[in-house]
Amino acid sequence: MNMLEVLESPEHSDFSRMFRERRFLKNNMIFTPEEAGNQIFVVKRGRIRVFLADEDKEFNLAILKEGDAYTTHTRASLQALTDTTILVSEMQTFGRQAADSPYFSLATLTVLGEHLRNTLNIINRLAFKDIKMRLCDFLLQEARDKGEENRAGVVVSTGLSVKQIADFVGSTRQTVSTLLNEMQKDGVLTRLSRGKYVIHELGELENGASSSQRPTMVRRRAD
Amino acid sequence: MNMLEVLESPEHSDFSRMFRERRFLKNNMIFTPEEAGNQIFVVKRGRIRVFLADEDKEFNLAILKEGDAYTTHTRASLQALTDTTILVSEMQTFGRQAADSPYFSLATLTVLGEHLRNTLNIINRLAFKDIKMRLCDFLLQEARDKGEENRAGVVVSTGLSVKQIADFVGSTRQTVSTLLNEMQKDGVLTRLSRGKYVIHELGELENGASSSQRPTMVRRRAD
To answer: Which residue range or ranges hold the HTH crp-type domain (chains A, B) (predicted)?
Structure first.
């Protein structure tokens, strides 16, 4: 579901009036948890990094792209990865209006539900997998979400530096760089350009991402 | 916000009719991700453990109690910790009705928003903190959420075994047991009974939970 298309359609002009446009230059912060804001926004143009910040570390949660929606009331920080334009509304204003519109209630529920699913995927990765498994899992998810098949395999354009990928899997630039080189040597993938990889063997990534190399146990539960 | 009170009030009988009662005995599974269900439920009685399951490990996400709401469409598993009664509805049916009711749309948004906040807290813990910090952070949050002050300090009734606490912080029973014993020896807390602790020094937990022992740096950002 793309909220941008909805906001730009004439029949929802009541809603679009509640949103104002804001622009951010590449690398500028859009929101930090120190701000007490409670806003909902839709990305009109550009890409936004959603991350948790510790005193001297960062952990990436998601990259928002055109059409994605997000709310600012969490502990996550938001940074423009490219020159970015967002449409933003106060959550309170939006909530009052959305309550009267089945469409927007469900849209907002869907957005929150997707973010919840994403965070559970991340917890799964952090709780059960070592760095190499997490990297395989991350690349696999990127390939499934936005990979494009060609003769050599599946092309994934992450648009991310190695450091930024490291901040997705909770590791350092050096470690992730070493792992990517190993995977290239093993014929799993080839680096095409910054952040762009062709994955030759999705199956290898699947094996690498699964939390155990042992044969899968059949789990039984009491009925 | 307690959705149970709402469901039990006469003015929302339209809604309560969409929910049916289901009972589970202690330790029984209420939902596993292998089931394709997409339901929303409210806890009427009992306590439910929400967790991620790997082949041979588990990671606890939350304990639901009376009045809490949850949806089953994620990868999380649900287990009755005590004899439990839930009121359950198909999400689709609920969504159609809720779309017409400002109250239920907002209630559902609030529930999802709270779960999202909880998962971000967990990611923060996993990404930035070692086991001891996570344990301090976990106890601190329990104390803040449901601690009761008495002369000796703040009494926290987690209702959890040491193994279950370990599954909240991503560690083993042995490690968490050792850490709790150390904290007792250091006078930070005293174990009263299974899962029940009195915390003498909340400040010690705060120090232990912060990700750095160094003085907090003042972070500056370009405006």
So the answer is: 129-203
- Residue B222: the pLDDT is 43
B214 within a domain of the structure (yes/no): no
Q: Which of A55, A57, A112 sits opposite B113 (nearest CB)?
A: A112
Distance CA B146, CA B161 (A): 17
Q: Which residues of B touch A57 (CB under 8 A)?
A: 127-128
Report yes or no: B121 at the A interface, CB cutoff 8 Å.
yes
ipTM of predicted complex = 0.79
A73 and B CB contact within 8 Å: yes
B54 close contact with A: CB closer than 8 A: yes
Sheet holding A39-45, edge to edge: A20-24, A84-90, A39-45, A69-71
Helix, strand, or coil here: A206?
helix
Report how many Cβ contacts below 8 Å link chain A to chain B: 126
Which of A54, A120, A133 is best to mutate for the B interface (most B CBs within 10 A)?
Answer: A120
CA B190 – CA B184 distance, rounded (Å) = 5
Q: The domain that contains A94 carries what CATH number?
A: 2.60.120.10
> What is the distance between the alpha carbons of residues A150 and A108, in angstroms, rounded to a whole number?
35
To the nearest whole Å, the CA of A44 is away from the closest chain B CA by 22
Q: Are B116 and B91 contained in the same domain?
A: yes
B223 assigned to some structural domain: no
Q: Is residue B219 part of a domain?
A: no
Q: How many domains does chain A have?
A: 2
On whether both A121 and A134 belong to a single domain, the answer is no
What pLDDT digit, counting tens, does each position of A54-104 carry? Answer: 888 899 999 999 988 888 877 899 999 999 999 998 877 877 776 666 666
Query: How confident is the model at residue B211, as a pLDDT?
Result: 57
**Domain limit, last residue, from A86, A112, A127:** A127
B110 CB near a chain A CB, below 8 Å? no
How close B141 gets to chain A, by Cα (Å)? Answer: 15
Residues A84 and A153 in one domain: no
Last residue of a domain, one of B62, B95, B127: B127
pLDDT digits (tens, 9 = 90+) for B56-108: 889 999 999 998 888 887 789 999 999 999 999 887 787 777 666 666 666 77
Residue A112 lies in a domain: yes
Least confident of A32-36, A159-163, A219-223, B123-127: A219-223
For A84, residues 6+ apart whose C-beta sits below 8 A from its C-beta are A23, A24, A26, A30, A43, A45, A46, A47, A48
Domain housing A149: 130-209
State how far residue A217 is from chain B, nearest Cα, in angstroms: 7
Chain B residue closest in CA terms to A34: B219
Coil, helix or strand at residue B218: coil
* Highest mean pLDDT, choosing among B7-21, B85-99, B194-208: B194-208
